[in-house]
Amino acid sequence: MTGPGQPRETEVTLAVNGQSRTVRVDNRTSLLDLLRERLGLTGTKKGCDHGQCGACTVLIGGRRANACLALTVAHEGAEITTVEGLAGKAGRLHPLQEAFVRYDALQCGYCTPGQLCSAVAMLGEGGPSAVTDDLTSEPALTPGEIRERMSGNLCRCGTYPNIVRAIDATVTP
Amino acid sequence: MRSFAYSRAADPADALDAFRRDSAYLGGGTNLVDLMRLGVTAPDNLIDVTGATSGQVDERPGGGLLIGAAVRNADLAADRRVRERYPMLARAVLDGASGQVRNMATVAGNLLQRTRCPYFQDVGVACNKRSPGSGCQALAPGAETVNLAILGQSEACVATHPSDMAVALTALGATIHTCGPAASEDRRIPMPGLHRLPGASPERDTVLAPGELVTAVELPPPPPGRSTYRKVRERASFAFALVSVAAILEVAEGTVTSCRLALGGVAHAPWRCHRAEQALAGQPATAGSYARAAEAELAAARPLPGNEYKVTLARNLMPAVLEELSA
């Protein structure tokens, strides 16, 4: 079933922010490059392109993931949500986006789309983290828990304190 | 990145069937895709096995668990049975990588991830693991050795295995289920035993044959006593271990009745501490016994110029974790 003559391109259909998209991609195309270069969704950012910074974080089936490490070809039928898809109908910002504005949780803004997507998914994850003492518990999302759970998103401007405040305010308004 | 063919395997037989020269199995891709982008590896044929093996955690007789190879790291750590019966394993998984990576990474992919030795990842320098026979830049004068091995290394390779989960599985005595390369050849590989020391062939991280597919990880019934995993790293989160310890300790009337210890970040494979375990058996559960056990294990350490600190770190960490478990 495989051989040297096998195609290096594949047609993939996936839903991006609720809209079905069918694209023919070189198998090497990352989900990040698909979003930015093919679908014009440049909100998702390329930081390190190695899964180390989190700037490319999107939701795949509601779970946060690094789009730079995801091959498009491996995501046939997937439901992708990017930062462009977080706002509600009529352009109303997601509560986390509003909190980022209110708490001044960004400086240059480059990591912000990834921070937002990561935080939106994180709030729905539950379960313990590496800083939870009792692994059988469902710990409250304290600032310490928020910091640990958001550690996959780096911010070179160092706006971490306000990012934690913004997320904390969304947890306990 | 070199172009490649892509196919999705429906079951293990399908995966084995698709495997030919220059093939690689794709799990979550969190390590493989990065290595392909770096040019460290360049498969011509990617076989997606995320749908070929189980993505479930199933009960085994006696309270053990069978973890499908395609279970995502995040789901493993969140599984209530894992959290209650194998807290050391849940903690090791939660200590690894980031929330995003744990959502993507599979159990088999975690076990089979490659070293983060900076010279393995840099295609511009010599590396016997990446390019057999080319030499080892990590042994050159002035090399950055901070994250490299202190135990079991060879003149060909001083890389360390980066997985936290594998260290916990080593202490637990888990069994790796594999299939192939011929579909009739199913194997059961006890941990430690999947990963090998580098010797003269560091290009081989594990004992798996080309095309052999990991299908599941079996956990024996929970061991008696208390267990934990502690990881020391350069920042508070999202960093590889400098040294980590997985420990299971049972104490009765002030005496150590059973103990299993494994170290991470120190060797080419998760390092089961047989010497320390022997030194502890039947000894009083005291700080002195724990310190002597650590010394017994680390007598074999051969640090590189620049990573001597790891010996001190391991010597302090092992007794600290054992004291925590017997407190």
Strand order of the largest sheet of chain A: 2-1-5-3-4
Name the structural class of chain A.
alpha+beta
- Number of helical elements of chain A: 5
**In the residues of chain A, how many domains can be counted?**
2
> How much helix is in the residues of chain A?
25-40%
Oligomeric state of the chains?
heterodimer
Q: Could you tell me the mean pLDDT of chain B? A: 97
* Percent of sequence in beta strands of chain A: 15-25%
Strand order of the largest sheet of chain B: 4-5-8-6-7
Q: Which shape of chain A, going by the Cα principal axes?
A: globular
Q: What is the straight-line distance between the termini of chain B?
A: 52 Å
pLDDT below 50 for ≥5 consecutive residues: which ranges of chain B?
A: none
| CATH architectural category of the largest domain in chain A | Orthogonal Bundle
Radius of gyration of chain B: 19 Å
Number of strands of chain B: 12
Largest sheet of chain A: 5 strands, mixed
Helical/strand content category of chain B: alpha+beta
CATH topology of the largest domain in chain A: DNA polymerase, domain 1
Total DSSP helices of chain B: 11
- Largest interface, chains and sizes: A-B, 47 and 46 residues
